Amino acid sequence: MSERSKKIKAFNKNRLDSIISLKYTAMLENAFRFYRGTCHLFYERIAALKTMPKSPVGWISGDLHLENFGSYKGNNKLVYFDLNDFDEAIKAPVLWEVVRLVTSIFIAFQTLEIDGEQAMNMATLFLKSYGTTLIGGKAMDLDPRTSKGIVGDFLKRAERGSADELIQKRTLRKGRKLQLDTNDERHFKLEKGLKSELISHMEEWLSQNNDSPYNYRVKDVVYRLAGTGSLGQKRYLFLLKSLHKKDRYLLIDMKQAYPSSLTPFLKNPQPDWNNEAERIVSVQKRMQHVSASLLSTSTFKSEDYVIQELQPVKDTLKFKLIREEYRKLYQVIDDMGMLTASSQLRSSGMDGTATKDELKAFAINKGWQQQILDIAIEQAALVCADFGAFQQDYRNGAYNVEPKKEEQPV
Length: 410
Description:
Elements: H1 3-11, H2 17-27, H3 31-36, H4 39-48, E1 57-60, E2 69-73, E3 79-83, E4 90-93, H5 94-111, H6 116-136, H7 149-160, H8 163-170, E5 171-174, E6 177-180, E7 187-188, H9 192-208, E8 216-224, E9 235-242, E10 249-256, H10 276-287, E11 296-300, E12 303-309, H11 321-324, H12 329-346, H13 356-364, H14 367-395
Antiparallel strand pairs: 1-4, 2-3, 5-6, 7-8, 8-9, 9-10, 10-12, 11-12
Helix pairs in contact: 5-6, 5-14, 6-12, 6-13
């Protein structure tokens, strides 16, 4: 077994054995999916890299790549396109965020066998947009009325998407009752005792939490499979029914919060969060223009969770879309650069992070842009080599998982 595989297994040792094998299988799909599932390996290298240019400390989402931007409905019921994954969110040098995204461009284009010059054009565009926005010093957002291309299409679909359509896709009727569909490959039936405990917990959350929707009761709950890096964490999907409006339902996602995988590689002090869920939600609220609907936290059986409404439409830049919509990709990459910088400007000066003026002063010196390009090209090659070793180790049985007898997550 390679040294990298030993680190992958060690990192995932506390995940659910019954689910972690699915994560390893997902990571076999291609180098980009492998990259999504091994954030910890990437930052281990970045932290040790002597050629990494210095940058101000700010708030970062921690796992920024091409598929971690998406459309969603905010808590004000309007739609937005923004950064959308904050599991790894932390206070760190702002270029750590940037180099992860740029590296994802090179890995994606190499995996899709798209010309390297085109990948370089996209990476350069992202850096230019990011730097220009920091220099401007003003956080911006994308409006459905003015957004163009792929992002405009995402936002229009998100506006049209309804909770009723989502309910129809995720549920089935059994007699007069509506329940979550366990024939859906993303849903797993829960053991009766755990299901009962989860329903009681959600009922309590609904009655006591100020962020919860009013006058709803829990009708069903399943284990939910989603993502790549977070596979193996406990994650549940609840079906809620309104007490006052006929046939009005909501779907609520409750996802276990783990420590940021960047923590071991950072020396700068972090806020004294009450728990990991508070870290995730707090940073998300700081960095996004508008927070996702019903974003909140909860503690179940001494474990911390992030809660939010499951979105009717939550489009992201899916991997295959890069090849199919290549000509439209320039506008998306330009938007991503602007949004990345805007998230850092929006959260600037909080808990000891750099101010807008400090971010602007840093961005004016453009020497870092070429350094990031050089590092990202090198890191993409190393990730692809790691992926090859992972494939070999997987074939040799290094990732065979035997579920613990006492484990009953699903």
